[in-house]
Amino acid sequence: MIRINNSTIIFFTISFGLLSFIASLSLGAADISFNDVISSLLASFSPEKDAQDVLFFERIIWELRMPRAILAFLAGCGLAVSGLILQTVTRNPLADPYLFGISSGASLGVVISIVLLGSTISVVTPVAAFAGSLVAMLMLLMISGRKQSQQVESMLLAGVALSFLFSSFTSLLLYHTDPQAVTAVLFWTMGSFSRAQWGVLWFPALVIISCVMMMLAYRRQLNAMLLGDESATTLGINVNRFRLVMLVLSSLITATLVSLCGGIGFVGLMIPHIVRYFVSQGTVFGIMLTALVGGIFMIWVDVLSRIVLENQELPVGVITSAVGSLFFLSLLYFRKNKA
Amino acid sequence: MNSSNDQSLSIPTAKTEILSVQHVSWHADNQLILDDISFAINKGSFTGVLGPNGAGKSSLLRCLYRYVKPNSGSVKFNQQDIWQQYDAYQYAQDIAVVLQETPTHFNLTVYDIVALGLLPHKSLFTREQSSDRQKIDCAIKQVGLVDKTLQNFEHLSGGEKQRVLIARAIVQSPSLLIMDEPTSHLDVRYQIQVIELAKSLGITVIASFHDLNLASAMCDQLIVLDKGKLVEQGTPQNVITSEMLSNVFGVCADVSVHSQHNVPHISYFYGYDTHDKTIQKSEHKSEFSHD
Question: Total domain count for chain A?
Fold first, then answer.
């Protein structure tokens, strides 16, 4: 295991994060040089800025790319942290924010909104997705909150079952609807940051920052959960209640992000694993690093999605899933070798 | 290692007892697991819980460390009911528990695990002070794992893992330590090491055992469970007898005095029918006096 000084790691990660952020503002269909990006960013701090001076490329930076980069960063942070929470409280290294049926619930919400309202209005879709994922979350809590024994196992199984249940309804509805809706739903489930606007960013920012704060406060409890339910109880934790609270937190993050960005798989699974390989996860440092690495990874995924194909955007979910699956397979391969 | 077996077992009184169990019964899925168990434990004593597999040892310990609530009866710690006058968090400040559960796949270091002992003493947003770090380092030193502080817990040997969990319990600074089969899966050297370490803490300890000779040598008091009932209770001299081994464990054995320590020592006979008392009594006479 590699061990480097914590502050060195944080310094490099933040530096690389800033660099990635500037790069994401520079790279894309319209070529904007690094210098232009930096001068535009610096100019925004100077008081003598005139509205008429705003150049075309500055509008691209400020109105298109910046909210996108911020949403991508938030999505990466949120999914990584959400995955970390779930893997910890279920003690299952394969737990993923989408394992619990939350994204299937969101998909169903989207499909229902399209079928019932017959439209693909951009305002309705996120609301419907959020409603769908909340329903999934409440159902999961109702089911897993009932049984006292074998909580982890029943929770995981309930999540998987719910996921299939929602998927079957989604398929049923799609089977009877017009092909246009099918395309709309398909694109939505593949994930995209194109809905990013300054006006909506406050919501994911609020949810993710408050959830990360709560995680930091409960970091010792999260670590203790890894010892096992009985040991955690003897350290003074009400295990079942704590697990439900953490499940709500992680579901809230996932629901928020799914409603804004669609389905982005595997990030929640792989980022905590990568970070865990280098540092201990249950410290303030470990949690912050997980969030940062997730955010930076997603900024680059967004950049890739914009530049891989000319004049066309590749769905974010396609990239994360491709990279994620390769990571996942190598994880299995190396773990097998280790045993 | 010459333990306090020569001391006579004083009967716990309100002043000296730390834990008292009164008429505790517990059933799971309509099956009676613990049946009307009562006993008390003195401050500073080392108590061993013995019994065959399925006798209810772990269940009894679970009742003591507040993981399961008995269906009837009460458990009192320092004269206070652990379910009515304590919550989990308060109880964890006084009682540390070492179990067989170990984390896997999550890259926790020895330090991380030992630091968890602070949990019951810290509020949510407080950071570790330098005195806390000192306490953790001290505990790691006490169990002799200083060179493994930053190592992954998963990569330690069974004995080392057990010592890490004891170090965590030390940081928790409890007045009572409960250990569920702390010596299972350990080789002889580690078995002795782990129990001596627990004894050296100078606090009250309750531990369940499968190795009866180890329990006999190390414990001040023994409690024997069979099919959920408390069948024997007292000093090793009083409890470890051929009759008890035959009745409770279904084995033929001779109980003599340990050649080095004044404690009962069991020699098992192999290939004998447990119920054939004639062979047992005529060929192997017990040398140990139970008076």
Answer: 1
